[in-house]
Amino acid sequence: MPHPRTGSLEEHQAILLAVLTRNPDAAVAAMRHHVGAARRALMSRSAQDVIE
Question: Cα(44)–Cα(34) distance, rounded to whole angstroms?
Fold first, then answer.
């Protein structure tokens, strides 16, 4: 089954890269972006479920 969010892998890679390079500002930014994108996707999916 394909992942519902196509950018998720790249987001995980950005988080990992930031951690590996010991860049806390980049890690925080990447994690916030990832969590926000996941939240928006879940909210959108929940709204679609209500409509259907």
Answer: 15
Distance CA 18, CA 11 (A): 11
Please tell me the distance from the alpha carbon of residue 41 to that of residue 27, in angstroms, as a whole number: 21
- Over residues 36-45, mean pLDDT: 88
Side chain identity, residue 31: M
In the block, tokens 């939240």 appear at: 39
Q: Is the dihedral of CA 28, 31, 35, 38 positive or negative?
A: positive
Residue 37 CA to residue 8 CA, distance in Å, equals 9
